[in-house]
Write a structure and sequence with these properties.
By secondary structure, the protein is α/β, with parallel strands linked by helices. The protein has a single domain, classed as Ribokinase (UDP-N-acetylmuramoyl-L-alanine:D-glutamate ligase). The chain has an eight-stranded mixed sheet, with helices on both faces. The chain has a four-stranded mixed sheet with strand order 3-2-7-8. 47% of the residues are buried.
């Protein structure tokens, strides 16, 4: 990276290879589902957000870990091809790169089987303070708790905005265990199931209140086809999704995060940021693959057409 290249966004977490098959329906135990379509490509939430933001015009860097294998080499090449900086990616010789096996049915619904491999081997000592503190925004997802806490503290102490997507596994830890992390987080983005799991509350308003009390000042709860619930210092609101043909929902949350962070970096308010993120995610689900992320031009065109 050249000294003159200022990184706007650093994403920290997993990079994985996605192996995807397509079936009419998911099989029951002891049943076989035939498939005549298979695809392979990059995945991992943090890496997806870095790629998505890069396509939207943000200078981004990914920090994570890969194995010294063919999958790892391809993953790095894909990130570099997308304009994502990879200087601080950790490479391990003794463990394979992570991968996810995904089955997608005709409704666009997804079942996943994950092998995290090397992607779970990023430790607090691997974090580069200069990389984090010189950015404008740090997005954390898919990390061990101690590494996530260390990254969030490092960023917050440097005055860098921190967003956090807990995903299913970290949400299951509960609000008390995540407290050391959440008090260093400015924005939390999660889906409704994760919000219920994390807070123990079914009500969107109750879940948001608990998350506010834990630290974040902005709470985004994604509700799939029911839209998005957002809460911030100026109030709460819900936004519907756009009417699109759903092909593959894999990576929709990451597309939303990329759009939201991009809009926030550009100084958009909460409603504008959610609108931009919603369009980004809705465009993604019309295409196959977690990295089927839209360009800035595509998102802007989508918003113009849907406002007419």
């Amino acid at each position: 990276m050249r000294v003159s290249d200022v990184i706007d966004l650093v994403t920290i977490g997993h990079v994985l290879t996605d192996i995807r098959i397509f079936v009419d329906r998911f099989p029951k135990p002891d049943e076989e589902a035939k498939t005549d379509k298979l695809s392979l490509g990059g995945g991992g939430s943090a890496a997806n957000v870095a790629v998505g933001a890069s396509r939207l015009g943000v200078k981004s860097e990914f920090v994570g870990a890969i194995g010294f294998d063919a999958f790892g080499r391809v993953l790095l090449e894909e990130l570099e091809h997308e304009g994502v900086e990879v200087t601080h990616v950790k490479v391990l010789a003794a463990i394979n790169s992570g991968l996810t096996l995904l089955a997608v049915n005709r409704k666009g619904q997804v079942i996943m089987f994950g092998y995290t491999g090397a992607s779970d081997m990023l430790y607090p000592s691997d974090l580069n303070e200069s990389c984090i503190s010189s950015s404008e925004h740090v997005h954390i997802t898919g990390l061990s708790l101690d590494t996530a806490v260390a990254a969030a503290r490092m960023a917050r102490e440097a005055g860098v905005i921190v967003s956090f997507d807990p995903g299913r596994i970290m949400s299951s830890l509960g609000i008390a265990e995540l407290s050391p992390l959440l008090k260093n987080v400015h924005q939390i983005l999660l889906n409704h199931d994760e919000a219920r799991q994390l807070t123990g509350k079914h009500s969107l308003h109750d879940a948001a209140r608990i998350l506010f009390n834990a630290g974040p000042k902005i709470v985004i709860i994604k509700r799939g086809s029911e839209g998005v619930f957002a809460a911030g210092p100026d109030g709460k609101f819900s936004t519907p999704v756009y009417a699109v043909k759903v092909v593959d929902t894999t990576g929709a949350g990451d597309a939303f995060s990329a759009g939201f962070i991009t809009a926030q970096l550009e100084g958009k308010n909460l409603k504008e940021s959610v609108e931009f993120a919603n369009a980004t995610a809705n465009l993604k689900i019309t295409k196959i693959g977690a990295r089927a992320l839209p360009t800035r031009k595509a998102v802007e065109k989508f918003l113009r057409v849907n406002k007419e």
